[in-house]
Amino acid sequence: MEEKERVNKMGTMPVNKLLFNMAWPAILSMTINSLYNIVDSIFVAQVSEDALTAVSIVTPVQMLIIALSVGSGVGINSLIARRLGAQRQEEADKAASTGLRIGLINYLIFLFIGIFVAGPFVAGYAEPGTYIYEAGCQYLSIVCIGSVFIHIQVVIEKILQSTGNMVGPMACSLTGAVVNIALDPVLIFGWFGLPELGVAGAAVATVIGQLAGLMVGVTILVRGEHLVNIQIKGFKIDWKVVGDIYKVGLPSIVMQSIASVMTIGYNAILVGYSTTAVAVLGIYFKIQSFVFMPVFGLNQGAMPIMGYNYGARDRKRLMDTYKAAMVFAVTVMSVGLILFQTAPNHLLGMFDASPEMLEIGVPALRIISICFLPAAFGIITGTLFQATGHGIYSLLVSIIRQLLGILPLAFILIRIGGVTLSWASFPLAEVLGLTYSAIMLRRLYNKEIKTL
Fold this sequence. Notes:
This protein is an all-alpha fold. The chain has 16 helices and no strands. It has one domain.
């Protein structure tokens, strides 16, 4: 009876209350995670501006790790939620069991990158033998080789979220973030008699934090009772289930990977003008995560609710969830916009910004942050697309925004008005994405949602 009640809350509890109950753990954990990313860079900036530039250069590869793990997890989450909503328990169990195998396979890709690709990648931005090159290679190799923990942790979190358990994933994320933050100064600066590792210390702290988060996830998975049954031994992958997972997961992976490709491309554009501008872009992505992560946390709470009610053919609850999530996202983004417009110098000051960094960074934060409000619409509408099994729509939005929008615009604008004008590529591209999202939302509603 208890399990039945836990399933039924997705289809019976008042939407606003359910969304709050589902979203707050993810919002809290992702906000703390964004804080740890900021703190991580603040400590690295105290080493030197070159150290911060080195970490900024390799950030896109870290984004790829997250893209593959979270994108796969989104597909697992969506499939489990839809199958539970349609009362297809066996298929939900298969999706969960398959998800763990997918996490291990994904790790092998980054193990290869960490061993063989780190040097050539960093050499594209810094001369071999320089501090930026050496520090970048160390950081990238460590985070890639040690990424096995985050790949499995994310899958476990998404499995739990798909069944309505948001507290377990929060515990995983918070544990990892707290351990990382605590170890950063210890390993970077060599406290308590430990060797001073510098940038490499930040990478080691990240991996240890991910291990701690995984240990919490495994404990919850082994000791708790869940709405899906996960088979560890003797399970053979059902490739049809893999296909169903990646119908939503692959577009999500590509969508998030596009952000990494965009950052790699933007860094390549900026490095010809100023390495400080590369550091500024890296700082922007760190700080903006404190604004975006609460919305992405809301996204994680809203997706299983939308997926369940789409599977249960309950149009009103599906759209009520969408509308409530949109109001929250716009509110958060509005606060972020005000912060970036009024206090960019203080935000940059946290990273020991030099006069040159302030000169480049203050207009950068003010111009780029104009994109926050249209981004709110895009994120929540993309959640609806993914929850209803139409991840391809979200993928196309990302392609329009970042491959057809930001990079070409930045390439043109930087030649017209320098680095400062190039930042306008962000809000201009977001308008393109908003237009396409609105068109596809109307199409999805008229073709499928309206008839539920």
